[in-house]
Amino acid sequence: MDVLRKPVAVYLLVSALAVLLHFWLSPFYPESWDVGDIWEVLDAIMAVGIVATVAYTLSYKRGVDSDAGTLAHVCAYTAFYAATVLAVLFFWNWFDELASGDEQSQTRNNFWPIINTMYIVLMGTVGWHLWRK
User: Fold this and answer.
1) In sequence order, what are the residues at sequence separation of 6 or more whose Cβ sits closer than 8 angstroms to the Cβ of residue 17?
2) CA 44 to CA 93: how far, in whole Å?
3) Distance (Å, rounded) from C-alpha 81 to C-alpha 58?
4) Diameter of the chain by CA atoms?
């Protein structure tokens, strides 16, 4: 598993950076590029990152032993449940977008900024943790 740790860390960190930059800069280039097409590619990249993060945080949560202390338990459980909440919101919204196309309801569209922000923070944190470990 140690062989995959650094590549997964790089994947998570680079994907978080890509989502961050596109999230910030997309209002400035709507005439140049189709913002929706870029999000379609990023959504597929995000799906892989979310699955990897849920798997890693579950493994991390299970690996925290009773002697680790309260802070280790809180960190492990918080990371796992944050990844799980992100996975539920992301896949719910993404599958709806794939099924409905451009006709996704405004209510569902309102979840994307929350999902993107959670993704950036969680992937950055987990990626950095994997890199330092």
Assistant:
1) 124
2) 13
3) 9
4) 56
Phi-psi region of 59 (alpha: psi -120 to 50; beta: other; left: phi over 0): alpha
The DSSP call for residue 33 is S
The answer to whether residue 20 scores a pLDDT higher than 80 is: yes
- Distance, CA of 121 to CA of 126 (rounded, Å): 9
Q: Distance between the two ends of the chain, CA-based, in angstroms?
A: 12
Alpha-carbon 78 to chain mean position: 15
Question: What tens digit of pLDDT does each residue of 32-70 get?
Answer: 778 888 989 999 999 999 999 999 999 999 988 777 788
pLDDT for position 133: 80
